[in-house]
Amino acid sequence: MPLFQPFRAIGYITDDTPFSVRRVGTETYVTVSVGRAWQIYNCAKLRLVFVGTELPKSIRALCSHRDRTFAAFGSEIAVFYRSHQVGTLKGHEAKIRLLLVFGEYLISVDEERNVVIWPARGGHRNGAKRDGEEGKGREGKEGREAAEEGGVGKEEGEGGAPDNGTFHLEPLGQFQLPEGFNPTGVIHPDTYLNKVLFASEDGRMQLWNVNSQKLLYEFKGWGVPITAMVGSPALDTVAVGCSDGKVHVHNIRLDKPVVDFTHAAAGAVTALAFNSDGQPLLAVGGMGGAISVWDLTKRRLHSVIPDAHDGRVAALSFLVNEPLLLSAGADNSLKIWIFDSVDDNPRLLRYRTGHSSPPCCIKYYRNGRHILSAGLDRSFRIFSTVQDQQSRELSQGNFEKRMKKMRVKEEKLKLSKVVCIDAAEVRERDWANVVTCHEGNPWAYVWELRNFVIGKLKLEPPGIEASPATTCAVSVCGNFALVGTSAGHLHLFHLQSARHRVAYQTRKQQYSPAHGGMVTGAAVDAINRHAVSCGRDGRVKVWFLKSGRLRFDVNVGSPIVKMKFHHGNNLAAIACENFTTYIFDAEAGRLVRRFPGHQDRITAVEMSPDGRWLLTSAMDLTVRTWHVVSGRPLDAFKVPTAVVGLSMSPSSDLLATIHLNRRGIYLWANKAMYSGIDDSDLLPAPLSLPDGSTTTNDSVPAVQMPVLIGPNEGAEGGDDGEGEGGRRVSVRDMGAGDMAVIAGEGGGRGGVSGREGEGGRGKGEEGTRAELWTAEESEREAREYETAAAAAAAAAAAGSGGKERLGTGEGTGKAAGGDQNQLQLQVPGLISRAMLPRSQWVNLVMLDVIKERNRPIQPPKKPEQAPFFLPSVPTFSGAIHFAPPEAAGAAGSAEAGGAVGAAGSAEPTAAGVAAVVAASGASSGATAPGWGTDGDEDMEDGEEGEEGEEGEEGEEEGGEEREDGGEEAGDWGKEGGVLGKRRHGRVVRGGLHESEMDTELMRAIRRGAQCKPPDYSQATALLKAMSPSAVDLELRAVEIVDESPSPSDLHRVALLMAFLEEKLRGSCDFELLQAVTHRFLAIHGSAISSFPELRAKLPALRAAQASSWQRLDELFQSIRCVVDFIASS
Q1: For the segment 629-648, what is each residue's pLDDT rounded down to a tens digit?
Q2: Quick one: which of 29, 64, 67, 31 has its CA closest to 150?
Q3: Cα distances (Å, whole numbers) of residue 248 to 286, 747, 1049
Q4: Mean per-residue pLDDT for 397-423?
Q5: Is residue 991 over pLDDT 70?
Q6: Which residue has the higher pLDDT, 902 or 1030?
Q7: CB within 8 A of 589, min separation 6: which ones?
Q8: What is the pLDDT of residues 1035-1047, one digit of tens each?
Q9: Distance CA 430, CA 445 (A)
Q10: CA nearest 277: which of 325, 328, 230, 347?
């Protein structure tokens, strides 16, 4: 398998397929098409909610009905239940052109004029129960609705999700439109039962009854093709847009025109929308990207948005009961306009945009969390690999006045396309830290990433005849920038002031060039000592940075087209026109490696952050990876379209590529980062054929392009935690080896957002739908996703690499829910995290501070008047006394012991005693009823206050208690007997084995310690599932409070120490175990130091803790020293 596996694609918002809007409860959602997949946005903030699975072909039409989405591709229709593809509808032979859902029907129309009618809510799957059986467990109408709604194999109220079986849906009927009537649109007029209206290319319209499949009426039309049609909120009225730019509002009941408008911009009408809130408006979109809004009351133009989209307006829709207009365009953008100004002119409220034309340059930025991208659409953007809403376009200035004055589009006023990008993150907060060169422009421009705007200064090379800048490079310190030109000149600038510093020349003549041809690459070494440049003259030159003197001049022998410099080892990768890549050592001034293999022009070169790998792409559709040290090829894969740009993340976990004629950025997961693959594993058989001959492109494996979601990101968990489809996911479901949102985070959860938890589907249809659409991913979870992005890439890489995934270090134990069938490997020398929310382990360390902060300021007060539903006893003093329940002793025993439920019960269960232990309040020093403490005095019957009722309950439950060393006054089987006897101020659980008094965590630790070797996977799973307070209570349950503890108490603490020691040595769940160890020592530290048996185990625990933390600490200190040294020098 290839070394890089497809992970996901970013930068896709929508295409030119009309969207579908649906309203669920109070929320509005829009479903858009993105090539062969679809995705859903919440219109409140345009936040991505769902991402669907990729289909075999591009989507041609979309529509949605409640929780179902219908996507037409080719001659088939894919049916999705929420995010699951539950089947495919096959009834057409030609390509489907139109889809419409109204009432209980789904209408599909193909290019051969065939119309097929499907039930929009019916159907069933193989093995699924039908009708009444489906709704069994519900009553009456609710049960029948459940059967009709999904044909689901399980009831939604029971937490079941639809499986991925075949969805059988037979068409209700089909018919063919008349010859010459080529449909271009279809709508359902309101109140027209079972009737749809078709529009055609010749301007005619026909009204059909889909139930009887008969033509009812034909409208003569306007003699020009109808390109858009929409129903009006007013009855019997529709709006029709034509290719000549005219809009006709027509009464279909009387077949008479109401009013005609002419679109403000030239070109055909492509989208229409009526406003149903407040003032009656009609929005019209055209081919040029302009949106005209017409006032239907005054029958005149209301306002115009001249450049709403850079290209055809694909769809328009007013949101219900809101002054908002939603628009989508072919420019890969989705926008919401609001009508809230004084003159009611619309303004842009929020938007999501991507490149309208394919990107041409990319570069990773901000520790791999963002990618800088420049496209052929003249835009310069920054994309977030973590949160889609953080992606945005960098501003090039306000063009509004110039646009109006020059009467041109904004695109014409933008800078020409970018040909080179470089940046330094060090100076982001100080001054402009990004430099770009633009096609045909003699200046290099600087950008301020802190404000996302273009800088006020520009780098202008001196000279009589200015030549276009072709390449640029920023120093590691962020203070200097190199700019090379097409005439061979090379200049050094100071970034803060944009002043020219040095001109590099081979001759002493003024303005002489540095190269005999165009400069194609430039770089500055890590210590600002040398500058490296290369050009079309086939030469690589090394210059002294400050003086400008030439140090090395090496002739490669072929024109150089690309260069990538690695600051860590001073090696430069040089791609030439002879399809060969060379490695140039800038310190020694010579070529050290040669990598032939490509069969067409090389388009991009990249080096891994550690300098071990070289990656190249070419027009032969291959991406090749080379081992720099050995000079041998490591890997290669072939893609459907040629790669034109490469960039590797700083952590080497992801590779970003851009492709010819594709508007997205594609991310590939590095399998070697997660599967334990070393270079030595790849070198023995690199790209060799079985007969040992030289490899060709035919021997390179072909891979599919990454899709919009990563592996398992779209899995919506069912009963067994498996599934397909797309969804926004939460980091709560992510593991280091398995990405199960948005969004990627399930057995038993079954929730779309990953936060529904147990019983998330048990609220019936409406409750489920509310959770489905309103559960938004919080900002904290987004930050957690940032830390778990590497785990997502691990799932992509290890999931298909034929190797076991990197897990959380649990080995081959048993999980809390059963056997762990999949072997999980811990990479030697590395530390794995538990991937828990940060608050779960940080709050455990700060638990004392949190308790102190949450302590009540005032003591509890008695209510002046008791609630009406609590029985009370009247008193002469007016104080409130609640009436005691009948059989208080028996009831109290049942609640406290869980097993001493009634008089004469034989013996308490371990679960019941554990409940008593948990209720004892050991963390706060409270005493469980009937157990007592050393030196307690019996409470009198008439005593009041907070402890009075506890004393009375204790008297009734526990009977008589004696002083220290006293005997029992009763037995377990006797009514009113004590639960145990007291010795040295502590309770001895008479009649119970030591292990039966353990908590759930202690029992799991005991079972793990009995294995050979010890296996604490179950105990670790319990710790991960507990809240910080629950973990604290578990640790305190074994706290030693006596000066002379029993051997069993010491044994419990020793077991905990052995558990922590074993887990710390494994370097797994690092952050969780560090927090648990901190809390354990805070609680048991004094007791451990008091008893030699426990004190003897401390050195081993300390050594285990140091083995994991000391390595990190040494790295931190080493990095800190280097940073301090560089900063001071």
Answers
A1: 989 998 899 999 999 999 99
A2: 67
A3: 15, 54, 88
A4: 80
A5: no
A6: 1030
A7: 542, 551, 552, 554
A8: 888 877 667 778 8
A9: 17
A10: 325
**Quick one: 372 exposed, middle or buried, by C-beta within 10 A (0-12, 13-18, 19+)?**
buried
Which pLDDT value is given to residue 966?
Answer: 38
User: Cα separation of 317 and 20, whole Å?
Assistant: 9
Number of neighbouring beta carbons within 10 Å of residue 1107: 13
Q: Report the chain's mean pLDDT, rounded to a whole number.
A: 75
Please tell me the least confidently modeled range out of 195-199, 316-320, 630-634, 737-741: 737-741
401, 410 contact by CB (below 8 A): no
Distance CA 928, CA 898 (A): 13
Separation of alpha carbons 465 and 971, rounded Å: 107
Q: Does 318 score more than 70 pLDDT?
A: yes
For the chain, state the CA radius of gyration: 36
- Would you place residue 785 in the very low, low, confident or very high pLDDT band (cuts 50, 70, 90)? very low
Interatomic CA distance for residues 885 and 892, integer angstroms: 10
- pLDDT tens for 109-157 read 999 999 999 988 754 443 333 333 333 333 344 334 433 333 333 333 3
For tokens 């929308």, name the residue: 273
Element (H, E) at 766: helix 764-774
DSSP state, 415? P
| Between 762 and 183, the higher pLDDT residue | 183
β-bridge pairing 986-988 and 281-286: unpaired
User: In the prediction, which pLDDT does 623 show?
Assistant: 95
Q: Report the alpha-carbon distance of residue 730 to residue 531 in Å, rounded.
A: 46
H or E element in which residue 605 lies: strand 602-607
Place of tokens 């969004």: 743
H/E stretch holding 622: strand 622-627
Residue pair 446/428 in contact by the 8 Å Cβ criterion: no
Question: Which long-range contacts does 810-819 make (Cβ < 8 Å, 24+ apart)?
Answer: 810/1017, 810/1020, 810/1068, 811/1015, 811/1017, 811/1066, 812/1015, 813/1008, 813/1015, 813/1016, 813/1017, 813/1018, 814/1015, 814/1017, 814/1018, 815/1017, 815/1018, 815/1021, 816/1018, 816/1021, 816/1022, 816/1025, 817/747
For the chain, the first-to-last Cα distance in angstroms comes to 47
pLDDT of residue 829: 61
Q: Decide: pTM greater than 0.70.
A: no
- Please state, for a pLDDT cut of 90, what percent of the chain lies above it: 39
Q: Quick one: DSSP state of residue 431?
A: S
Residue 825 is classified by DSSP as B
CB 204 within 8 A of CB 221: yes
Q: Which residue has the tokens 């014409």?
A: 412
Instruction: Estimate to the nearest angstrom the gap between the alpha carbon of 384 and the chain centroid.
Output: 11
Site of tokens 């003569």:
220
852: Cβ contacts below 8 Å, ≥ 6 apart: none
In three-state secondary structure terms, 23 is: strand
Output the pLDDT for position 228.
94
Q: Decide if 657 contacts 646 (C-beta within 8 A).
A: yes
> Cis bond leading into 711, ω under 30°?
no
Highest mean pLDDT among 13-17, 135-139, 1112-1116: 13-17
Burial 717-737, CB ≥16 within 10 A → b, else e: bbbebebebbbbbbbbbbbbb
Give the mean model confidence (pLDDT) for residues 901-917. 38
DSSP codes of every residue in 325-385: EEEEETTTEEEEEE--STT---EEEEEEE--SS-EEEEEEETTTTEEEEEETTS-EEEEES
Rounded to the nearest 10 degrees, the angle between the axes of helix 1070-1090 and helix 1028-1036 is 30
- List of residues 6+ apart from 253 with CB closer than 8 A: 235, 236
